[in-house]
Amino acid sequence: MPELPEVNRAKNLINRVAAGKVIEKVETVEDTIVFAGTTHEEFANELTGRTLESAGRYGKVFYLNLSGSGKMPVLHFGMTGMLQVKGELASYYKETPKTASTDWPPRFMKFILHLLDSETGVTTQLAFLDARRLGRVRLCESPLTEPPISELGFDPILSMPSIGEFKPLVLKRSCPIKALLLDQSFSAGVGNWVAGILYHLERGSTGAHASAIDEILYNARLHPEQRSNTLTDEQLIALHHQTSNVCETAVSVDADDSKFPENWLFKHRWGKGKKAAHTLKLPTGEPATIKWITVGGRTSAFVAELQILGGPAKKLTRGKRKAKEEEQGDESDLGTLTDSDDEKPPIKSPRTAKVEKKRRKTVDVEAEPTTSNHKAKRTRARTAR
């Protein structure tokens, strides 16, 4: 899914090719899923004739600022949404496929903006594509104060809280720190982003998947499963710094993974699988055993030697605590055995003792001598009864 750096790049693309141009025509296709709370026809009517002044972004959501009164387009890429300028390849979020084409109109198109440059008379066409239909196109009076943006947490680039504001936001929650960072109501735009998306084929796209959160936690030296309410002041300061630092770095290079720092986990985390060694030396010379776990429903990579799981031990339930105490008591008894204790016969259960007693009685009866005197005694006993 396109995350903050990739959506920021899409915003930059719109500002580069469309800012200041008049929307003279809007082509749309009917899609009651992608067009949320509106129709493709209403969307086209709302935009036609207005000037696209600029594009903005908050978290993973981007929007268009248009001239005049009326509603503004608010867009979310979902899993496979993307933009394409006529004459160029689409901005793919994975490696550009061999079947990529500049054919127009593009496949999976939801709308195309015809943008007129009043000074040159040249028209540019910009399309929004979505193959899996998980993206959303909305119309809002005030994008920043209405859902979905109004429901989001802070943006690490646009509205990063101070360390004083950040600490209570983290400490009041009790969940794995990765799960907290994945929560868009806590922090907007940070996620298991796809690094190197928006690469064109001629730029040598790797299409590799990476996690911004994994990078943040690696640089902050925090284990993905560390409980948020167990972080120390030092850890909170590191988390605060790396949350903004990693996102700012990715945005500054336009999500170009070839320009990511060499000491990032991203540069060394590949090779997941049975044949992979998983053990590397990072450029710093530190030993690096890269392990994989699932946290918050997402696969997470971390360096075992550097990201140590800490925090208070889990509380035992009453039953487990009693069992543990009994176990410890047994171990204590074993530790005080003496030589005389070893010579004592083992204690038998009541059932075992009863069975053995019955066997001894049977043996005694069989061993009695069969003399006439004994037979007479048994006969008199039966007669008396």
UniProtKB/TrEMBL annotation:
Pfam families linked: Fapy_DNA_glyco
Family matches, as InterPro entries: cNMP-bd_dom, FPG_cat, FPG_N, H2TH_FPG, Ribosomal_uS13-like_H2TH
UniProt-annotated stretches for the region Disordered: 315-385
The keyword Lyase is annotated on this UniProt entry: yes
Record domain Formamidopyrimidine-DNA glycosylase catalytic: where: 2-135
Record's keyword annotation contains Methyltransferase: no
Segments passing through the bilayer: none
Protein name: Formamidopyrimidine-DNA glycosylase
Organism listed in the record: Mycena venus
